[in-house]
From TrEMBL:
Organism: termite gut metagenome
Protein name: Uncharacterized protein
Length: 47
């Protein structure tokens, strides 16, 4: 992924970009945690 340098005077816009990047990161992490949880639950459900 290429990061574009925030232009001066577009502080709010670059802030939004940062926030959306963070959100995407958190989403990915949450997805991984959820997948792990699901697989663990499947394992426990087999017993």
């Amino acid at each position: 992924m290429e990061k574009q340098a925030p232009q001066v005077g577009k502080g709010i816009a670059s802030q939004e970009v940062l926030i959306s990047l963070k959100l995407r990161e958190c989403e990915k992490e949450f997805q991984e945690q959820a997948n792990r949880f699901v697989s663990v639950t499947r394992l426990c459900g087999r017993h």
